Write a sequence for this structure.
């Protein structure tokens, strides 16, 4: 069972998640938050993809239920639609496997649309569910001093994982913002940390976030990681510079 449901805000999406968990329990296998900006980027870069709305809502949720055969996933979503009518503004429930795939294709193509538009910087963060709505509400004002910036925020809301991507004003290349890229990402990571979140979520640390992990990570955990690294790799030759900064020569 798959549905794309329009909501008024991230706060409403979180309320809907709570309502859905109460009604459907562990059958919820995906609960994806999608911003209107992401759907507008899709319309611009992939106009051949059909969307349920001619004018995308500011926020929507892609819901997927993993129920065994014969248990009526469509009926379960319809029941949620009825019981959460105060939260759901509009929506479409997939009536076939192809319709479900079409809805998922919208979500899965957003990163490709982002790449085509050209991001200034991209953050992969996680937050306590109780802090997500506040984070999304606070960030635009924090970023406003940097100028005209478009935000595409989407992600795995059920896991507290957000992809928070910043883009230049329409018609302006991302290279024009190059001198502020590091400061923009630092602002996103700073507020994430202040709200009890992590600056590294599903895509890991790699090399790009080494400095951020050193700045925001738990020093005790980092020291233990360093001890394990030194024990297993005393010469520092295994993937040097990833996750932990290399030892000074």
């Amino acid at each position: 069972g798959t549905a794309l449901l329009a909501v008024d805000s991230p706060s409403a999406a979180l309320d809907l998640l709570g309502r859905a968990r109460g009604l459907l329990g562990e059958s919820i296998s995906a609960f994806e938050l999608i911003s209107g900006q992401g759907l507008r980027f899709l319309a611009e870069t992939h106009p051949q993809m059909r969307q349920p709305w001619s004018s995308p809502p500011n926020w929507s949720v892609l819901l997927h239920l993993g129920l065994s055969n014969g248990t009526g996933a469509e009926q379960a979503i319809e029941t949620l639609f009825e019981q959460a009518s105060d939260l759901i503004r509009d929506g479409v429930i997939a009536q076939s496997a192809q319709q479900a795939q079409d809805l998922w294709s919208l979500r899965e193509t957003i990163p490709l649309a982002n790449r085509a538009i050209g991001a200034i910087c991209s953050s992969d963060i996680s937050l306590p569910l109780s802090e997500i709505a506040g984070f999304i509400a606070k960030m635009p004002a924090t970023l406003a001093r940097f100028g005209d910036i478009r935000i595409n925020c989407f992600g795995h809301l059920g896991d507290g994982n957000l992809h928070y991507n910043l883009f230049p004003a329409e018609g302006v290349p991302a290279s024009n913002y190059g001198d502020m890229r590091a400061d923009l990402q630092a602002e996103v990571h700073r507020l994430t940390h202040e709200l009890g979140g992590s600056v590294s979520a599903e895509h890991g640390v790699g090399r790009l976030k080494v400095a951020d992990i050193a700045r925001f990570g738990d020093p005790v955990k980092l020291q233990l990681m360093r001890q394990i690294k030194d024990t297993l790799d005393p010469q520092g030759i295994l993937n040097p510079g990833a996750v932990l900064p290399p030892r000074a020569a």
Summary: The CA atoms of residues 149 and 168 lie 5 Å apart. Helices lie at 10-24, 36-45, 73-83, 97-117, 129-143, 181-194, 210-216, 219-232. The chain has a mean pLDDT of 91.
